[in-house]
Amino acid sequence: MRGPALVLLAVILSLGNAASAQHDGHFSSVPAKDRARQNPLAAKPDVLAAGSALYRSHCAECHQPDARGDGAKKPSLRTPEVRTATDGDLEWFLRQGDLRHGMPSWSSLTQAQRWALVGYLRSLQ
Fold first, then answer.
1. Sequential pLDDT tens for the chain (125 residues)
2. What does the DSSP assignment read for 53-122?
3. Which of 2, 40, 46, 106 is the most buried (most CB within 10 A)?
4. Structure pTM?
């Protein structure tokens, strides 16, 4: 394979890698049915305020009040990985947690509260 064919192959491979990278990392094990879920509270006016209050009381201690993390073990929530995650990815991750990496499960919150947090995270992007 030479010249233009090799360049075309490189472009195709890089596009495939970029598309699959979107769901690597923390969101790689999200089931497809959860990934496809949409935030049913996204258009509700008071969701942002509720999500902000929940963030302050449950998330800010680790991820910092500005959601930028500490640069070490407590990651920023303003990353491309979070920005490109679906609403369903985020809600699933809040529900499941990732104890290996220090993220607790927030399954004790109601589903509406988790969706409010997702709405708030979206507002940060």
1. 454 443 333 333 333 333 333 444 667 778 888 898 999 998 788 999 999 999 999 999 999 999 999 877 788 999 999 999 999 999 999 999 988 888 899 999 999 999 999 999 999 88
2. HHHHHHTHHHH-TTS---SSSS--SSSHHHHHS-HHHHHHHHHH-BGGGTB---TTS-HHHHHHHHHHHH
3. 106
4. 0.75
